[in-house]
User: Fold this.
Amino acid sequence: MKVAFLNQEFQVSMSRTVREEFMSAFKEEMEISERLERVQKAIEGSTEDLELMGRLLDEFDLLQRRAQAVDLDEVDAKVSKLMPELGFSPEDSDRLVASFSSGWQMRMSLGKILLQEPDLLLLDEPTNHLDLDTIEWLEGYLKKQDVPMVIISHDRAFLDQLCTKIVETDMGVSRTFEGNYSQYVEAKAAWIETQYAAWEKQQKEIEQTRDLISRLGAGANSGRASSAEKVCMR
Assistant:
């Protein structure tokens, strides 16, 4: 299973261009591409050293085969397809990441992990630092993703829009409630009411048993009183 994690402090490099930032999601592919470019330049500068050129040509051939295996053309096509989905225009490709707001940097971070095609997406306070318009965009975008998600958030409206289950952990015990956050609040209130009713019933039964013990113990039924006391203690 491939797990992707969107940190609440969006992980981007301010000195990269937007396209370079997206391409950084494909670390192995980019290393091959950069190595190919360096070897190609080295070949152009080794025309007078045939032995060196031969070694470089062998390396270039190996790198080309690796590039075909990881399909560098497909990587480029994936980035070109995703950028407009995230709201980036073709002109944004060469702009520096530092020139964009935190909301747009969040889109870059999200885009990078979606490019990796994860089986599970973990989102840690994804609405932090975002304005209302960007939060609404994020809700709509995530709704369209066919990826299971685990979301930690204090934004109840955001949880209402996206979640189908709420997991509550209290005093070391976890319980799962079906539905979104508002439905969880209602279900939790009903659960507490049921637990309280069960506790009240139990207390009433204990009191009745104690009363029985007291009455039986006063007469000749001390054996029955002892049995009732054992029941009460359970």
Q: What stands out?
A: Residues 181-217 form the longest helix (37 residues). The chain is about 60% helix and 10% strand.
